[in-house]
Amino acid sequence: MQYRTLAGTDLKLSVVGFGVWTVSAGWWGDYSDEQAIAMMRRALDLGINFFDTAATYGSDGRGETLLARAIAGRRDQAVLATKFGYDAAGQTGPRGEVELPQDWSPAFVRRSCEESLRRLETDHIDCWQLHNPKMDAIEHDELWTTLESLRREGKVLSYGVALGPRIGWKEEGLRALRERGVQVIQIIHNIVERDPGDDLIAAARETGASVLVRVPHSSGLLEGHFTEETTFAPGDHRRHRPRQWLIDGLKKVEQLRFLERDGERTLGQAALQWLLAEPAIVSTLPNIYDEAQLEEFAAAPDTPPLTVEELRRCDALYAENFGLTVSV
Q1: 9: nearest Cα among 177, 179, 160
Q2: Which of 17, 104, 149, 303 could join 265 via S-S bond, C-beta 3.0 to 4.6 A?
Q3: What is the CA radius of gyration of the chain?
C-alpha cells in the first residue's frame, strides 16, 4: 500500500480507501453487520487506513456505527471521514427515491458533529465533509464560521466538500476551493467520466487542496466484468439505469482493454492507477463488494503504473468520446 498526505494535516491516507457506503446503505446489495465489519477489518489488515462514511449511510447512522465497531481497538490506525448536511428527520418520501432536505444552520451542524462523534466512538473526525452541498451552502457564511470553530476546538481536523449526488456541481466545487479555501474535495471521476472532474482537479492543484475520488470504476463498468447479459439485483441502484448506459459503457471498456497486463494488472487496478497518476488525488474509494475484490483493489498500488503512452491513449479516447456519437 502507498500513502499520501491530506492537505492541511499530517494525516497519511492509503491511496486506496474503503467507501462504507457500499456495505451499509443497501444500494449495492445487502450486507449483514458481521459481513460489513469483517470486510473493514480485513481492509485494515491489507493496509487500507482511510474509511469514508456519512451520517445518512443506512438508517440511524448505520455506516458510522459499523465503522466504529470495525476499528474498535485500532482507532490510531484509521483515518475517518464522514459527511453531514442532510436532515433525515425531515424526510418526506421513500428513502432513496427523493433527496433529503439539507440544513446548514450552526445549531444543526454542531448537533450533527456531536452525533457523528458519538456514533464513531471517537473524540475527533479526521475529515468532515459537506454532503452534496448546493450553492446555498457554499454561500452560507455562518456555516463556514462554525466549521472553523469546530476545527479550532479539535473536534474536526479538516473539512471539505463531497460533491454530488450525480456528476456535476462544478461551480459549487470551484467556489468552495477558491473562495472558501477548502482543503479537501471529493468528486466522482474516472477514465470515462471526466466532466467536471478535470476542471475541479485543476483548481485543486492551483489551491493546494487534496482530492478524494469516489466511483473510480464508473459504477462497475471499469471493473471489466460486465457483459450485455449483466443484470442487477432489485436493491442495486444500477438496476434503474437505462440499458444504453451498459451497452455504450461496454464499448468504451473494450477500447481500454490495452491497460490490462496479464498476471500483472487487471482493468480494475489500471482504473485506479490512472487516477493515482494525478498527484492531487490522495485517495480513491472503489466500491468493494467482497473479499476477493477488496484484495484486488488493495493490491492496485503495487501494480505497474500507467506509462506516458497509456495515459496519452486514454486522453485521446476520451477526447473523441471513444468513437461514440452520444455520450452516456
Answers
A1: 160
A2: 303
A3: 19
